Queue: 3 jobs
Job 1
Amino acid sequence: MKFSKRSLAVKPSATVKVSNKAKQMIADGIDVINLGIGEPDFQTPDSIDQAAIEAINSGKASFYTPASGLSALKDAISQRIKADFDVFYSPDNISVTNGAKMALYTLMQVLVDEGDEVLIPKPGWVSYEQQIVLAGANPVMVSTNDEFKITEETLNEAVTKNTRLLIINSPQNPTGTIYTKEELTAIGNWAIMHNIMIIADDIYGSLVYNGAEFTSLIQLDDNIVAQTILVNGLSKSYSMTGWRIGYIAAAPEIISKVNAILSHSTSNPAAVSQYASIAALTGDQSVVEQMRLAFEDRLNKIYPLLQDVPGFNMAVKPQGAFYMFPNVEEAVRIAGLSSSSELVEKLLDEAHVATVDGAAFGLPGYLRLSYAASLDNLIEAVSRINEYMQSFT
Ligand code: PLP
């Protein structure tokens, strides 16, 4: 069998791999706590479910919608952005996609060619790199400082004449880092100076804790906004990962290219999910706040416990998203192992806790633990990890 160069180049998602192994162990009756996952553990709020049920019962959900989404949903997105950030995107500048993942995938297809380079922060979300590879371009990881932030200095080290795009993800998966307004302004001006477009992946924008403030690139000055393509979605803020709704807000010439590709690839995101999303975006937003508060409480309780685990070092407390990203180089040494990937395996096989190796995000020597799990499970998981590590001391 001959396979395409693209399919041979692409690597399966490491986060999905760990999660699948953990799910298989659970199916085999093993009591595994899965902290490898990247999705909220809450049911989608009932009001949103009800809107979907109504769409089905009324027959509206039976048919194709426009490839780039229902105009009522684009209106709802436009109004939500206006209400949250006081920035107006016309519905014509919005395209609805099958999750933010498809938004990012399609943007890569639209914006880069072979030989082009795309800058991604290290560590960064697992799919950026592979989506860039699938578009034939080259991912270039940009080093970050002690707070896991890229800076003008590290960008200068990474930029070449082939650089076309920069991805900013704030709050950041896997570290929970949030960029300040000043930092984003410096990065935005740097991008303008080098004529590089920025994709702002704001998927965790509503999950910000302990008084930290989230600024989106789209709130900065007009020149930076013109340089920015916004990607967001409903998966994380409304606990709607399974519904697969994301979106792009950008200049019309980008949106029309995106829409052409969507019309030949997905046709449209599931109609029922689009109706549910209209209800989510236009309905009572206190559901978002309730989930945010639950994540904040978990972070505040679990962060100090994890810091007490021998060999787990986490100098900076995460400010957003729902992940912790401790350095475990010392833990690897204490346990007599050779890498963080071995530690992930041992934690799964012996402590029955699923985590993800930092290498999946470009930074070996770290682990990603998701706190999208019940507080009881989180406390139990950290205690199991602690017990495993204590066995060596
Ligand atoms: N961007 C980041 C940083 C993510 O972590 C994820 C999901 O894990 C996505 C985008 C894609 O989210 P979805 O496709 O569910 O909207």
Note: The domain at 5-44+287-390 is CATH 3.90.1150.10 (Aspartate Aminotransferase, domain 1).
Job 2
Amino acid sequence: MQPVRIAPSILSADFARLGEEVRAIDEAGADWIHVDVMDGHFVPNISFGPAVMKAIRPVTTKPFDVHLMIAPVDRYLDAFAEAGADCITVHVEAGPHIHRSIQHIKSLGKRAGVVINPGTPAKMLDYLIDMVDLVLVMSVNPGFGGQHFIDSQLKKIAAIRKMIDASGRAIDLEVDGGVDPVTAPRCIAAGADALVAGTAVFRGGPSAYAANIAALRGHG
Ligand code: DX5
Ligand code: ZN
């Protein structure tokens, strides 16, 4: 397993200064930029779409890790690919044809990820593990930043780590929701190798970002 990658979620950034915020987390050591797209239908909140993502794309060369909370999602995949996504991650719960969605993302030449919600079993990955590049485990119910980590997801992270290792494929195992310096080491111990964090990165303002990111790596 490689060292943990930290993916700050720009959902917690100051939207009035979004470009500066992306530059600041890049300089503070972010590995990926996590882009949370919410449609007000699949989740009870609305964030932003591909035009906003495209506007911040030139600000950094770090990979854009795009988490689509959209249903049905397929009609938007091309737009996010064109707007500069590096990895596009879709929920198994967001439509009847997750296998087709993953095929579509791969056909666009992008890394493909699959997300499972807290109430969704790891078993949903059985027939996807041979084609995805990333599995994202939600450790909160999606829709909002600043929620509490759901402990029961640690068991699922460990189960998926076993599935990934058994597959022999290079698949990132990412955790999203309530990740902070207390829960991060528990996720890593369970087998995660990428962590999304909004609140725990952006609190304290730009002068705190580097220390906040280091603390999530366990270098606090
Ligand atoms: C939730 C989003 C998360 C969220 C993380 O739907 O997918 O990325 O913004 O925020 P924190 O780290 O504050 O829980
Ligand atoms: Zn997310």
Note: The chain has a mean pLDDT of 97.
Job 3
Amino acid sequence: TRNLIFILGDQLSLSLSSLKGADPTQDMILMCEVVEEATYVEHHKLKLAFLFSAMRHFADEMRAKGFCVRYVRLDDRDNSGSFTTELLRAIAETSPRSIIVTEAAEWRVLSAMEDWQGSVKLPVEVRQDTRFICSTTEFKAWAKDRKALTMEYFYRDMRRKTGLLMNGDHPEGGRWNFDSENRKPAKPDLFRPKHHVFPPDAATQEVLALVERTFPNNMGSTENFSFAVTRTDAEKAADGFIRDFLPNFGETQDAMLAEEPFLNHALLSFYINVGLLDPLALCRAAERAYFEGHAPLNAVEAFIRQIIGWREYIRGIYWLKMPGYETSNFFAASRPLPDFFWSGETDMACMSTVIKHTITHAYAHHIQRLMVVGNFSMLAGLDPYAVHRWYLEVYADAYEWVELPNVIGMSQFADGGFMASKPYAAGGAYISRMSNYCESCRYDVSQKTGEKACPFNALYWDFLARNAESLSGNHRLAQMYASWRRMSAGTQQAYRSSASAFLGKLDDGSRV
Ligand code: FAD
Ligand code: DLZ
Ligand code: SF4
């Protein structure tokens, strides 16, 4: 063997940098399912099954291109359980002249990779991951000397860099951002198109059995498997999104409906994150839909912004702040996660619905993650590290580089505002405006305090009051603190004692 090309589970792209110049007659591909990766958190069963099945199908795709693929399955008898030991075993058995890899997306794995040069005694070439539009070096240069890392300015640079929705130097439609036309609630719609489902093929069924047998106690059930696991099927899902959902993507982006967990969302993050879909190609397809008159600008701009703006920005923040970002805890919050995070058994209809969807699908959309579970976690003072671990476990698209800044920075404000200019905190009124959850809830969203009142209401004010020292200087919260100060001592007290009664129940494990 000339080069041994080691491809990780989230590197399933034909354009992968480690495959540049690869020659099937001389080079060998190594892929392995390892227990170390499968257990660093207790991943949802659907997440494990999706990844292993996508890896196995990718190995077949490369074999069809003539490559020799050394593929180590999780239950192979000689599987030594980690990337490093599997690399060493492969080297001993295949005697390559050098090792080629694409940089790992996560700090934990990249730091192991950086030690390989010393331990394998062969040349190890670590190549940049060119599937991102902005390299980590470029992001660091962008961030240097800036007082605030505002996503919107970063996004404009990415629009200029890619030329997406640009007329020369000017944004298409005369504005960079059309979100003022978005953020509408949604109504149930029996005629809304359905997202593609992909029934498991024989190879996936084998993986489902493996996962069920090896990880019986992890969240979820392998019975609900419907992910695409091949590039062809992922592309089908992408085409379906552009045809059926993109035209309405913007308007209902922030809406939530109990009976429609997916609304007009893409359900493509899983495929993008493992490399089955190319983010830039997807944006170009969305742009085409706009120029062909199939989808309006507010929708297409919003979709493109999520990908070349948010997704790239989040990755930049991750590499700027790691290691150490994962233990950020600005509010010194320490409450453990309540058991209902794993069962959905709570009387709060919003939390129950989102968590149960999560258990069933290993998916929840952005506003559910941010304004329901994330918001509750921050208001209730849950330990942000534990919250981070939960998100990393339960969502099929969760890899630390993308999950961590979204959780620690955006949703928990645990980095003290490095990323977000104010905490995404809201009382029940927000959830009630953007969803229909409250209609079926035991709690009453219009009551502020007391046993029947929506817990988010008192928790919201209690959160502001107990963190006044760290937050009251934030000018974006000035109005809220002014409202708090205008309340009578009695009202303030009622909020605080309602919140503490609720938190007391959380702490003693009573049903809430
Ligand atoms: P859509 O809503 O249809 O958006 C289209 C695409 O935009 C997504 O596929 C995704 O690639 C990209 N995107 C949108 N928002 C973000 C964002 N904030 N960060 C990165 N990419 C974005 N996304 C993950 O991929 N993995 C995670 O582990 C993850 N954890 C999150 C945790 C929290 C607390 C929050 C608030 C957000 C998280 N996100 C995560 C971002 C976002 O919620 C998901 O990307 C999105 O819900 C995926 O579903 P979709 O494909 O239907 O997305
Ligand atoms: C998430 C994950 C899991 C659960 N298992 C594997 C695996 O067995 N083999 C593998 O190559 N990759 C796995 N992954 C994805 C890796 O964790 C991911 O590629 C690294 O974190 C690099 O970012
Ligand atoms: Fe959630 Fe409160 Fe509405 Fe119940 S009333 S669904 S707890 S926001």
Note: The two ends are 61 Å apart (CA to CA).
